[in-house]
Known about the structure:
The chain is an alpha/beta fold. 30% of the residues lie in helices and 23% in strands. Helix 10 packs across helix 11 (312-328).
Amino acid sequence: MPHPLNDLLPASLRRSWAVDGTCPDLDLYSLFRARQISDLHRTAVIDAKGKLCYTALDRKVRCLAVGLRGLGIGAGDVVGVQLPNSRNAVIADLALAAIGAVALPFPVGRGAAEATSLLRRAEAVAVIAATEHRGTHPAATLAASTSVATATAAVTDPAAPKPPKPTKQPKLPTLRHVMAVGPGPTPEGTIPFGELLRRSDPSAFVAARPDPDGPARILVSSGSEAEPKMVAYSHNALAGGRGNFFASLMPEPASPPRCLFLVPLASAFGSNGTAVTLARHGGTLVLLDHFTPEAAIAAVREHEPTHVLGVPTMARMILDRLEQEREQGQEGAGKLPAPTALVLGGSPLDATTAAAARRAFGCSVVNLYGSADGVNCHTGLETRPGPERADGHGVVAGRPDPRVADIRVADPATHEPLPDGTVGEIVARGPMTPLCYVGAPELDARYRTPDGWVRTGDLGLLDEAGVLHVVGRLKDVVIRGGANISPAEVERELSAHPSIRDVVCVGVPDPVMGERLAACVVPVSRAADSAAPTLDDLGLHLTAHGLDRTKHPERLLVVAELPLTPAGKPDRAALRERAATHA
């Protein structure tokens, strides 16, 4: 039996958002189907294969839904999806919703051990995985995890029976099927995804019509610091709560958005793809199977998206590439057709990057504060993101929207609300609030209050105008000789250094002080090593900005690019390892 995915919000509160129209009160496939009927030939997806309209997409979704049912997969079953951004990822999302199954997407960059852990902890019955992606073979790897011998050893001498030898149990005991997606030979022990689509009769499809307040998708946290958390979301929380967030970024009169996703659809940020862009708003997804700044720039120029969704590091890489174009004198260098908004989330957005992106893209730059755990707040189309408060208290995250998530600042110990202007833990509850953590009651106990509020672990304050400011993390500190240093605070100041394009600060082990702060820096110009700032340069800059000497970095790692996690965020664990070795 799969883990129970119980809703930790009061049922009456959850229902009230459906009754008053805050949430659509329809499952994701039904919402998508309504969009398909209203505009049969609107383009749904643009990917490496070209364009796919809503009607053609719906036919493929129906075929896959019939094929999945033929394999015995149905309502409540958890099915993993490890695919790059493509039409197949969208087909899988919608087909699983159509049969009432629960999708567990995770990016193709997740290693074999982590992918296996996610599927095992979620008790997944099947997984849809890429045959090959950038030198990895996810489908074959996952199939091997199900093929460990499970039968007991045979008795060799019937006349003198012996107890069977112990044998290994499979790494994924509940996994029954691995579906392989992509060209090339089908790995042994897998089912070809293409054949499943071709052999299924779409006319045999009957929609399951699952409860809109029931589970639809499991979001996976970035897992940059620890084992990733898995968070269960309902249809209404995705299309309603998250859909309301995106609606606020669509100017009136609202027309279907055209969204370029630079982040994986399988990430928490990417959950705004199928469920929100297509099912809720009837828009178009523009997808890259792998992010590079060159590919992103080409997609903006060719497809002219209304919204570009990424993380600040990706924006800085794009800005750097545009500057290189100008230096090389390329035709049309540095110019982009202006979207409605560049939406950046996943990590803090500094004022310097926001201003440069606003100039380059010619549009609003939206700072999105959010997480897989159930919090969302953003600066909107009009507010300029990134400015720090004069008193040093954090970065503006915007005004909370109760149609998405009501946000309070609470005492971390008592969970009682604190007065405006007081720093405390940011907590959230609203239409986008998830059901629960998956297979982890200890996380429910730690991060959910008895009345359903989500504890973010972030520190912030609400000012007198009701605007949220994010200050840092409760536990994201470097402890140097007993003194706490906030890496986020140092990163905010260093991001304004004229020689720094990108920066991440991490703690590295030290036998004397316990930890020391290391700054991992991408210089503005990588043409010569002399362009990179030195530790002394960083110290002078931080002193000029009023940062106490005890908070200055004591290690410096200069890198050409920041490594990214599969979800598109800076890989702090990898940087910490490199900085420790470099030191």
